[in-house]
Every structure is written in structure tokens, then in C-alpha cells.
């Protein structure tokens, strides 16, 4: 049995197998997970991650149990520990996709779980399935990841998807990152040390325009309102980096704009019909990547992908 907790679990060969499987999942439905049950256990809000996991499970013939607003609706409100909840849900389901506000919560769950745990976002920690679909999008749209210049923009301090993607990009050759943020929301030293160790070059800047016309991938992110101690502090950063149509038009010919979504003003709607905008297409890639992940965890034919 394997868990999916962080992107460091993947190597180039496992990413290759996962992405090949995801591509085969396009427009695909089968009964390969018939009789299996996914528990979607969400202690934080979600639209894409929860519903795409549920859709992925249904498309593979499985069934779903779902708990949204777990922080308010579950027996956690009576004082039940996360560990006890996982022990209980493990008797109802075959796999758990869990989102939780605390970094490290998925690791805690995995430590005692008898069924696979998928980290669907743990506080400011990681969001590995998002990063996998982001990487898949880059490969599908550019044709290759090696050699890419990726600009990651916005909240690099609290943005768990950006952290997870940085770890994955460290597996590829000749990657250059431009990290665009205010000085207070810079990428953590742990990630920068990892990039150094993996020979990923990076520059840090507070200026967006230069990155827009130099990068192959613009990875725009939302300021993570829910991670700030106060609304006032969040308001200081909101609206700091906004992609306008003029900025999108300044991009290189084949360059792409991706975003984990939801967006809350950091990409103007007038960008949506730009040839560079692939953030809604990216959502569809997320569905097939999550189908491939569920198959990797529960279909014996693919058990060598996640280690
Ligand atoms: N990208 C992402 O995690 O979206 P949701 O919060 O809607 O799941």
C-alpha cells in the first residue's frame, strides 16, 4: 500500500508512467475500480480538487463518500482526533483524499492509516496532485519540461501548489525559475536549498513585466487569504500582481499562462481568450491526472508508479 503525501516521492520514470497513463485516460471510462470506495475528506473549502477526484473515481467505476466542511460538520467538533477519524473512515473506504488546514496533517494520517492517503492540500505544506497536473499541463502544452523557463508569481510563501511544483521541476534538466513576489511573500529557504541541490537556477524579483516576456510558463497564483493572520495583512498584498491583456500579449509565441485556480482578480477576464491562456484547459488535465493517480493506488496493473 502506498500513500501520496509529497511530490518528492516521484522520479522521472514514475512521472513518465503516470503522465502516459493520464493521457490514456482522456475521454475514457471503465470499471477498473468497480467495488472500490473513495472517501473525500475535506476540512477546507474546495471546488476542483474534491469534485475532480470524485469524478475521476466515478469514471473508473468506483464510488464516493464525501465530507465537505469537515472542520464544522465532522466529529472533530466534539474533539475527535484526526488519527481516530482516519481509523474509522478506513473501515468505510478503500482510499482517502484529504484536505486539511495543518501542514503535515496528511503525513500524520498516513502514519496510522490502513488505506492509502492522498494529500489534497495540507495547509501551507504541499498540494502534490495540483503540482502533478500543473507539470502535466506544461509537458502537454510545451511538448517537454526540460529547458523550460518557468515564472512563478504571487504568494510563494504560503502557496502550497507552488512549493510542490518547485520540487517536481527539480527533477528536470536545464530549468530556470523566475520567482516573482513581494519581499514578504518570497519562496521559503527550504525550497531554494532544494533547487540549489538539484541544479535549478533561479532569480528572485518583485517585477512582473520582465518575466512575462521572457518565460515559457507563467504560473500565476492567488494570494492565500486564509493563511494570513489578519484581513488587513492580506489586503496589503491583494492585487499586487495582475496579468492584464497587454501583459499577456507581450509573451513569447508559444508561452503559456497556468494557474491552479480559483483566481480572485490576479488574471483579468480579458486574458481568457488569449492563445497563451491555458488555465481552464489545465482543469481538464487535472481530471485525467487524478484518474491516473487513483488507478496507480488501487489498480494492481499500475502499482509501480507511486512509491
Ligand atoms: N486548485 C485547487 O486546489 O482548487 P480547489 O481549492 O477548488 O480544490
End-to-end Cα distance, whole Å, is 9 Å
How many separate domains make up the residues? Answer: 2
How much is the radius of gyration in Å? 19 Å
**Beta fraction:** 5-15%
Number of strands: 9
Kindly state the percentage of residues in helix: 25-40%
Short overview:
This protein is an alpha/beta fold and 307 residues long.
Description:
- The protein is α/β, with parallel strands linked by helices and 307 residues long.
- The protein has 2 domains: 7-126 and 284-302, Aspartate/ornithine carbamoyltransferase (Rossmann fold, 3-Layer(aba) Sandwich); 128-282, Rossmann fold (3-Layer(aba) Sandwich).
- 38% of the residues lie in helices and 15% in strands.
- The chain contains 12 helices and 9 strands.
- Strands 7-6-5-8-9 form a 5-stranded parallel beta sheet, with helices on both faces.
- The protein is globular.
Amino acid at each position: 500500500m502506498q500513500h501520496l503525501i509529497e511530490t518528492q516521492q516521484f522520479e522521472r520514470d514514475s512521472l513518465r508512467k503516470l503522465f502516459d497513463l493520464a493521457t490514456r485516460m482522456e475521454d475514457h471510462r471503465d470499471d477498473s475500480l468497480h467495488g472500490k470506495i473513495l472517501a473525500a475528506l475535506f476540512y477546507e473549502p474546495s471546488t476542483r480538487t474534491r469534485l475532480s477526484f470524485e469524478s475521476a473515481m466515478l469514471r473508473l467505476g468506483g464510488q464516493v463518500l464525501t465530507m465537505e466542511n469537515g472542520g464544522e460538520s465532522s466529529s472533530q467538533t466534539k474533539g475527535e482526533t484526526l488519527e481516530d477519524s482516519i481509523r474509522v473512515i478506513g473501515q468505510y473506504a478503500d482510499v482517502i483524499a484529504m484536505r486539511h488546514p495543518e501542514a503535515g496533517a496528511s503525513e500524520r494520517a498516513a502514519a496510522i492509516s490502513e488505506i492509502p492517503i492522498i494529500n489534497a492540500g495540507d495547509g501551507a505544506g504541499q498540494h502534490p496532485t495540483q503540482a502533478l497536473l500543473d507539470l502535466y499541463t506544461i509537458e502537454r502544452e510545451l511538448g517537454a519540461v526540460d529547458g523550460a523557463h518557468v515564472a512563478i508569481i504571487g504568494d510563494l510563501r504560503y502557496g502550497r501548489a507552488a512549493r510542490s511544483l518547485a520540487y517536481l521541476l527539480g527533477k528536470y534538466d536545464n530549468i530556470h525559475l523566475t520567482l516573482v513576489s513581494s519581499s514578504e511573500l518570497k519562496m521559503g529557504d527550504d525550497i531554494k536549498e532544494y533547487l540549489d541541490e538539484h541544479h535549478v537556477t533561479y532569480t528572485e524579483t518583485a517585477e512582473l513585466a520582465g518575466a512575462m516576456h521572457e518565460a515559457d510558463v507563467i504560473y500565476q497564483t492567488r494570494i492565500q487569504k486564509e493563511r494570513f493572520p489578519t484581513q488587513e495583512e492580506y489586503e496589503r498584498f491583494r492585487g499586487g500582481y495582475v496579468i492584464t491583456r497587454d501583459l499577456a500579449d507581450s509573451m513569447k509565441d508559444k508561452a503559456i499562462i497556468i494557474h491552479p485556480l480559483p483566481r480572485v482578480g490576479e488574471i483579468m477576464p480579458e486574458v481568457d481568450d488569449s492563445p497563451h491562456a491555458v488555465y481552464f484547459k489545465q482543469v481538464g488535465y487535472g481530471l485525467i491526472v487524478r484518474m491516473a493517480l487513483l488507478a496507480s493506488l488501487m489498480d494492481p496493473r499500475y502499482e509501480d508508479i507511486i512509491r
